[in-house]
Amino acid sequence: MKLTEVFAEFELGWPRMHYAFAVLCIFVLVYKFTLLLAKRRETLRHLEVFSGPPGHWLFGHVLEFKQDGTEMDKVVRWGEEYSYVFPLWFGPFVSIINIQHPDYSKTILTSSGVRNVLVVCLISFLTHTSGNGLLVSEGQKWFRHRRLLTPGFHYDVLKPYVKLMSESAQTMLDKWESYASTNEPFELFNHVSLMTLDSIMKCAFSCYSNCQTEGGTNAYIKAVYELSYLINFRLRVFPYHSDLLFHLSPHGFRYRKARQVAHSHTEEVIRKRKEALKEEKELGQIQAKRHLDFLDILLFARDENQQGLSDEDVRAEVDTFMFEGHDTTASGLSFILYCLACNPEHQKICRKEIIEALDGKETMEWDDLSKIPYTTMCIKEALRLYPPVPGIARRTTKPVTFFDGKTVPAGQ
């Protein structure tokens, strides 16, 4: 057969291949869509015993969330109307069951048929940002890292942190003095957030960043805030849940740029610390010279096989504490101060109690923390009313039946 005849036959067969491929793709799409419809019908059958807010047949309850900062208020209102539990739909195929009644929560939190998970897309976003740290890891890796990190929270390690946190708080209060003299209002959360970031950098890195006074110029601090904003923004914009769409977007470009700055900073700090610790054989030798920080604990951590954490694991754990630690702490502190301001009679009692505990000293010390029981109660009550993390996520691995006889299926 001549070469021209071969090409001619190939040209004739090429449209047929295209046609066959198109038919195959359509078949796969129809098959997948049929499975999704069957799953939706089965889920609706299981969830019909739970009353909840009416949703759109296609969008579910997505349109109810206007992205204007009132999303949590709407969930709270639904919780008042449907006091035990209510289902929510995000599109036609994704549903969650929102639980708030204590007896329902007890069943979920004590059942062996429930898996501890975060929302899948949030896990993906956080993993891309801070690595596979303790917050998002699971299984044996979680148990190993949790065991290796436990010494970092021993009293002897934590005690020196009180002084570091006091220094950061004093810097913030010095800034507030200027506002007090002018009687001008200001956004408190921004200041508290920089203060908690300053504290964590000191405790995790032994790094004095001066971020409270130079927050706008420090490249790492700017990257941390940029990443925090972009993760939250991506979570709320549904098309950005696609890695491809987010990667191609301007926000994706900003995200990658900020992530590179943050990771480079952490890697450089780890490299320098490992270089400085080459001569040290154990943590006790370091503690005799200075306080231990979180990075020291991570670099010296060893399991039963004398295996430590890799550089990537160390970076992931440090980044996890930086990104998931400072913002939640700042939120909790801000709402505590808000609650005290709204209840001046309780604020007055706390102030009197703290002044007595200080007994003429400038700052609190570790042993003073047990001398402020009323203030501690106010802190816990504020955290109950305004929790920095208002929800947790679980997925059922087998059917779970609640105290009232209602059941949710596996995979919910």
Report on this structure.
It contains 16 helices and six strands. It has 412 residues and is mostly helical. The chain folds into two domains: 1-48; 141-385, Orthogonal Bundle (Cytochrome p450), CATH 1.10.630. Strand 1 and strand 2 form a beta hairpin. It comes from Amphilophus citrinellus. InterPro entries: Cyt_P450, Cyt_P450_E_grp-II, Cyt_P450_sf, Cytochrome_P450_Monoox. Belongs to the cytochrome P450 family.
Topology:
Elements (H helix, E strand, L loop, with lengths): L2 H45 L23 H11 L3 E6 L3 E6 L2 H9 L3 E3 L3 H11 L8 H11 L5 H28 L5 H18 L5 H4 L4 H18 L6 H6 L1 H27 L6 H5 L6 H7 L10 H32 L1 H15 L14 H13 L8 E3 L3 E2 L5 E2 L4
Antiparallel strand pairs: 1-2, 3-4, 5-6
Helix pairs in contact: 4-9, 6-7, 7-14, 9-11, 11-14, 14-16
In short:
Helices cover 63% and strands 5% of the residues. It has 412 residues and is mostly helical.
Total of helices:
16
In percent terms, what proportion of residues is strand? Answer: 5-15%
> What is the domain tally?
2
**Quick one: overall form?**
globular
Fraction of residues in helix: 55-70%
Annotated CATH topology of the largest domain: Cytochrome p450
Could you describe the largest sheet, including whether it forms a barrel? 2 strands, antiparallel
- CATH architectural arrangement of the largest domain: Orthogonal Bundle
Number of strands: 6
Question: Termini distance?
Answer: 61 Å
How are the strands of the biggest sheet laid out side by side? 1-2
Give the radius of gyration.
27 Å
The topology string of helices and strands comes to HHEEHEHHHHHHHHHHHHHEEE
Q: Residue ranges: pLDDT <50 for 5 or more in a row?
A: none
